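fwd from M.: "can u put these together and see what the complex looks like"

so here's what she sent:
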Amino acid sequence: MPTGPTQVERAELAPNGWSKDLLRGFKAGERAALTEVYRLHAESVALLLRHGFSFEASGTRHRFAGYGSGFELQDLLHETFRRAFEPRSRASYDGIRPYGAYVSTIARNLVLRSFRAREVLFPLADGEHPTAATLAPIDDGPSPEREVHDAEVRELVAAFLASLDPEQRRLVQLRFVDGLSQRDAAEVLGLGRQRIRTSEKQLRRALLIYLREHGEATLIEGVVAAVGVPALLGSELLRVLDEVTR
Amino acid sequence: MSRPSKLRRVIERELVDGLRPGRRRALVERLRGNARERRGWDRAIAALRVLEQRPVSRAEIDQVERWLFDDLAAEGVVEAAPIGRGRGWTWLGATVATLATAATLLWWVGADERGPAISAGDAGEVGETGELASRGRHPIARPLGLEPVCGTPPRPASDRGCELDELLGFSVRLGDEALDPRAAASLVAAPLHLSVFGIAEDGEVRYYLPNPDARELPALAVTNRWAALPVSVRLAVNHGPGRVRVFALASELQPSTADIDRLAAALAEQPRASVDDLPWHLRLEAAELAPLCRDLDRCASAETEFLLLHTDPARTRP
C-alpha cells in the first residue's frame, strides 16, 4: 500500500513539495539544486512542447499542436529553463506555487511569443494581420505524409536493431525498452558502467550513421521528426524488438 | 558508404559526443530558423525517440541539460561543471566534448550572438571573398584584425600586392563592436600575446612574430583601434614571388617556434578561409591548438594573405 510522507518528512518539505534544502539551494543558484530541479521538471515541459496545448486568443479557443521538429523542441526547452534559472526568476519564485506549472507557463509564453514573431514576418496580403492564435496550427492528427514518414523511421530503426550483435541488442532492451539505469544495466550484463557508457555511445553513433546511410533517400522531405507519438510506438516496436532480441 | 555533408557530421558530433559550448551555440544558431538544414538533426532525434520508445527521448533532454548548464556556467550563474557530471548521453557528451576535436568539421558553421567572439549574421550577406575578414565588417565578428602593409609610405598589401624589394609590416586590432559583452570581457581580462606567421606557396613557414631577432611578443589589449606592429620584414630576404597566407594569434601563452610549426602544419592543409568560416583557432583540432588556447574565449585569431610580386623595374621610387 503506498504511503505518503511521514509527519517528519512533511516538516522537511517546502510548500511546493521540494525539500527545504532543495528550495534553498535553488534560490541560491547551486548547481546541484538546479540540476535536480531540471531533472524533476524537464520531461513534463518537453512533453508539453511535444504534444502542444490549447489556449484562447481573441475569444476563440485554439490549439498549438506541439513541435514536430526535435530541434525546435530542444531549443525552446533550453530557453525555457535558461529563463527559469536566471537569478531574477529564481528570486521571484515563492516556493509555494508548484514549480512545474510555473516553468510550463514560461514555456507556453515562449511558444506563443514565437508565433507573434511570425506575425511580423508574414502579414496577410489583404491588409489583415493574423493573431498569434490564428498562426497556431490546429492539430487534426497525423497527416498521411507524416504517417508514412513514421512508418519509415520505424522500419529503419527496426532494421538497425536487426543489424546489432546480441550484446548490443540486450543493451538496447535493458536501457531503452526496460528503462534500466546504466548502473543497473551494468549489473545485469555483468559489465562495468564505463563499458555501458561506451557501448551506448557506439550504439548511438551507429544509429545515426545507419540513419544517414539508409534514410536519406527514403524519408519524405520536410516531414521530419514526427515520430514519438505514443500511439505510433509501443506494441509494434516491442514486437520487432522481441524478434530481434530473441 | 557515402560521405556525409559537413553539416551532418557536425550534427552527429553534437548528438553523440557533444561540441564545445561556443561551437554548439554556433551550430544551434545556424539551424535555428533554417528548417531545411536541421532536417538531419530532426531525423536523428526522431530515430532516438523510436529507439527509446518515448515521445521525447531521454537523450534529447540530457542534451539540453548539457547546453543549459554550459550556458549558465558561462554566464556565471552556476559554477563550472564538475568532472563526470550528468547522466547517460550527457555524461558522455560532457566528457568527450572536453577531448573533442571537431573544430575542422565546423568550417561552415555560422555565427552565434552569444558565443565567444562570434555574432549572428544574415546568410544572405555571406559570400566568398578573398578579403578574409578580420575587419569586423562581415557577418562573423572577429575580434582580432590583421592587415599586411608594405611600401613607403605603407599601403595595404591588398591594394596591389607587395614587391620583393619592399618592407612588410602589419596593422592589428583587437576588439570588435560586434563582440558580445561576455566575450569582450574575457578578452579584456589581461593582455594577450600576439604572434604572426606566414605560409608561402611552397609551404615554407615565415616567422614574423616571434622571429629569431624578436622573441618577445607584443602584448595586445582590446582597443578597437588599429595599430602598427613593431616588426618590419625585408621581403627580399627569405621570400619569393607568390601568395603568402598570414595568420595571427592572440593568446595567453606565448607560442614557441615549435608551436608555430605545429599550427602552420595544420593550417597549411586547410583551404583558404572565406568570410563565413570561423576564425582559424576555432577550426583547429584541440590537440593542434594546445596548450596555447585552453580557454577559447581568451584567444583570438585572424588570417589574411598578400601577393608578393617581382620588383617592377619601371617603378619610380618616391
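replying to her w this: Strands of chain A lie at 53-57, 60-64.
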